[in-house]
Write a structure and sequence with these properties.
By secondary structure, the protein is an alpha+beta fold. 42% of the residues lie in helices and 19% in strands. The mean pLDDT is 94.
């Protein structure tokens, strides 16, 4: 209510994740704090969706709401599988050069500032890790990312860009999820229903491609 009254243009609404090796994790282990159960979290999430949409916010990604025209430009590049370049210690990057030869890679820079400076001084790339991504991995990533968004997973793009006919490969799973009213298939695009948003990760796992 406070955020709406202040006309905050963008809201990211994440459920609390208790991370290991934190003071909160120790308090939970000792019984000092009891996290909310799944049913309570589900009610809160549904209320958040209903309340913010009633007040003019667009629910454009699982955990993201915005007033019209205020989507997060930065995050949309992730969800659209577009290139981004990370500069500085701990920064991440994704780069997909499609022509003349497809080559997709992801890397992250070292976290330590002194090591980062030292590697640059030696004219070395300050990478902590770097990996090449094959088409199956890219296809699964696209599926994971796009199903989180209100724009949905475009099956035509999945086939033309990633070489995967998901309707053919996952026809039974798609039919099952559509019958359970967890997703819809319209204009060759898969989109989550509100119920589907509650179980997005489990639902997506049914559609991922078998790497083998």
């Amino acid at each position: 209510q406070k955020a709406v009254s202040l006309e905050v243009p963008h809201l990211s609404t994440y459920s609390l994740t208790v991370e290991e090796r934190t003071p909160l994790h120790k308090q939970v282990q000792r019984g000092i704090i009891t996290p909310s159960d799944d049913a309570t979290l589900a009610r809160r999430y549904q209320f958040t969706m209903d309340y913010l949409r009633e007040h003019g916010y667009e629910h454009y990604e699982i955990s993201s709401f915005s007033q019209p025209g205020s989507r997060a430009v930065h995050n949309q590049r992730y969800w659209a599988h577009e290139n981004y370049l990370g500069i500085g210690p701990s920064a991440h990057a994704f780069w997909w050069k499609k022509l003349p030869v497809s080559r997709a890679e992801r890397w992250a820079n070292v976290r330590n500032l002194k090591l980062y400076e030292s590697l640059l001084a030696q004219r070395k790339l300050p990478h902590d890790y770097r990996e090449l991504l094959d088409y199956d991995t890219l296809a699964n990533e696209y599926l994971l990312l796009r199903l989180r968004t209100s724009d949905g997973l475009d099956l035509d793009v999945m086939e033309t860009t990633y070489g995967v006919d998901l309707l053919m490969e996952k026809v039974d799973a798609i039919a099952e999820l559509e019958s359970a009213e967890l997703l819809t298939l319209r204009n060759n695009t898969l989109k989550l229903t509100d119920m589907g948003k509650h179980v997005c990760d489990a639902l997506t796992a049914k559609l991922l491609l078998d790497p083998n």
